[in-house]
Amino acid sequence: MHLPHRSSAVLSQHDMLSQPWRQWGDGTGFNTGYTQGVANATSDRLASQPLMTLFPSRLVTPELSSIVISAKDHRPDYVVISYTWGRWMHSLRDNDTPFVGGYWKIPGNQLFTREDLNKAIQKISAGSHSWVDVFCIPQNDADPLKDDEIKKQSAIFRSAHKAAVWLGTGGEEALAEVCSWQPEIVYMISPSLLGFPDIVTYKYLGWPAASHKETQRRLRIIAGFSDRVPWASSLWTLQEAALRPDAIFYTKRGDPILHSDSGNPITVKHLNNTMRAIRDELMDVMSYTYGQSVLDHPDLCGLTEDDISLVNRAIDEVNIVSLHNLGSMNAGELLLASKRRTASDPRDRVYGIMGAIGVTMKVVYKDIDPDLVMNNFLVKLHNELPVEIQAFHRVNVYQPDSRRWLLDEDARLLTLLRQRKAPAVTVFSAINASNHLVVDRVEYLSDNGRAELKGCLLSERAVLASDRCGFSHFVPVTSYVKGSLNYREPATLCLMLDNISQKASLAVVSLGTVSGLEHMGWAMAYMLVAIPSTPEYLNHAPISTRKCIRLGILVTATMLFFTTMLERTFEIL
């Protein structure tokens, strides 16, 4: 069925320059496409690793035996195969099967047989060696090789000469159809993938019943996409998709899944682009009425209550799949996206995504609290990639009950921020029982320091992505958003900071240097905090009273000089 074309709104260069926070990408959709020129920091970090760490310890031969690869061996080309299976593993291990060269057994599965797996591996690898997790990673949690191989996931996937996604758990028909909606040819005006008419078309031509029905059918497919394609809901496969967007999809039989128009094999990158186009179209639908939600005026575009429900479900599903902006995510966004995916073991919330982020830690499954694993990982992220894990701000007065210092679904993303170099001295030390982030030192802003900061803001040598909920602890933010006052304007921010400094001490926590924004003049990043006490009192105050409230993330053209180091333990709420 022919579907109409739709145009998409683009933020003008004037808007970008007059609204500096938009240069970072702020979660409004502007950053889509804009970040293609930004270097992938994770790839850069991984590329610097020694060759010895970039190769798997085991491979599967064309005859399906598992062989050990040592440093002295010839290192053959291999195909890395991504698939999902853990959720359907038999609880009783009676169906586990042995394999040649292994000292563990391959777990039995409810959705595919061992024969299905063997045939698919041989067909996909086509005479080459392959890497398949159950053949190459010991399935005993206490085996130290399991730790080593999981820590090397990023290197294993990146070093493969070819990557594949095997849909052994189903979904090949849905994936082929959805990806075939997106043409491989680039058009000046993007085609509609879902078939919504624009307001003008609907006003004069209506919405033919057949077209309306087709749109509803497509919405239902998207709303249930991860159920139809279980690979798209797994946490581990999110990491694998991030590491190998060139991976080709294969059917359960091991045949490549082809685009219905071009006949070319469908890749992860094509699915990413399709999901991005679908999300853009869904968001356009929700803003059909020039700034007013379609929920208020569904009559303007002919949407029924069922249509609106389907649109909302489809938006939720696209966010769960989290492939629409996978190629432009920083570390914080990737961690947030991983929370939407399914993991069989809660500790995999760390182990199943750390390879894509590029910050790894020891893998321990036995007798360790999943919350402790996550807390240790968050502390390590704050010390190695503090810019990226803090690349967000909150535009609403609403605040979460705990961990306000951590990116969540209600925060606005600063997509373009990337870490160049973390501070030489690690300052983040723990997450305590109150869920506060513990920092061992902050830089207090003296009178000269506050004057320097305000001067930077007013001269646009600094930009503050402010946390409205943090500001609301000290000043009535609503008074700054009435009439001509805008709490994002530099002059208004300076007034608010003056107001806060009468009630609390302003300080910053250095987050290191920023990468990818040099052409815009940005070099340094800080977390701006308010401490409801004087520095003199804090020198002698007990740790329990040293609280900080996050006011936002500050990006500057130069280092701040007029600061005084307070080497005391503080808790960021």
From TrEMBL:
InterPro entries per record: HET, HetReg/Transcr_Mod
Signal peptide start and end residues: none
Pfam families, sorted: HET
Heterokaryon incompatibility domain segment(s): 78-240
Superkingdom to which the source organism belongs: Eukaryota
PANTHER family the record matches: ANKYRIN REPEAT DOMAIN-CONTAINING PROTEIN 39 HOMOLOG-RELATED, HETEROKARYON INCOMPATIBILITY DOMAIN-CONTAINING PROTEIN
Protein name as catalogued: Heterokaryon incompatibility domain-containing protein
Species of origin: Gnomoniopsis smithogilvyi
